[in-house]
Amino acid sequence: MLEIVISSRNPGKIDEIKAFFLSSGKDIRWLTCRDFKNFPEVAEAGSTFFENAKLKAKAVSKFTNKLTLADDSGLAVDCLNKKPGIYSSRYAGKNATDKNNRDKLLKEMGNVKKIEDRSARFICSMVLWDPKKGLIFNTEGICEGKIGTAEKGDKGFGYDPIFIPEGFNRTMAQLDQEEKNKISHRGKALQGFYSFIENF
Ligand code: IMP
What we know:
Bound molecules: inosinic acid
Number of domains: 1
Largest sheet: 7 strands, mixed
Number of helices: 5
């Protein structure tokens, strides 16, 4: 069976990746940080989502000697000059919680009253790294939407409770995992990845 390591410590991301493949018919044995001792902590030192995804995939593939999938993702808010971007997970500081990050974002957007001025998008860069060949596949997914003025919903993770995807009047945190995977940045990147891995 095909074995792929997910280079992430984020349980929300790991669940979404596994859930996407549950209904795909492709048998993959997913391995995560829980399956290895001393799983590397990779510094996100790049200046783009793609660079960071490559750094995470390469380091973990080198450590495990296995095919490794990495996702680097985040939120770009137009009225904040595309912030928090690659700093999404540490927007409110190094040890910030998701709630700290959402509170900071809502505060910074406090003066932006009109919903049409609150546009944003989630971006996901996904990389598959082979320990012998290096980068063998990469793809990107984008999900457009608006930032709401208050939190709604308790599903998902990160900025989901304040992100309203285009075409919806609910936040991402009010969608179940299957609905989110159909429209999300990660779900779209996973569709591209699935096309590649289908005949692997
Ligand atoms: P990464 O681990 O550096 O890729 O950090 C991704 C960060 O972007 C997360 O910690 C969240 O703050 C945010 N993010 C990425 N994808 C999502 C999502 O699907 N929903 C909500 N927030 C997300």
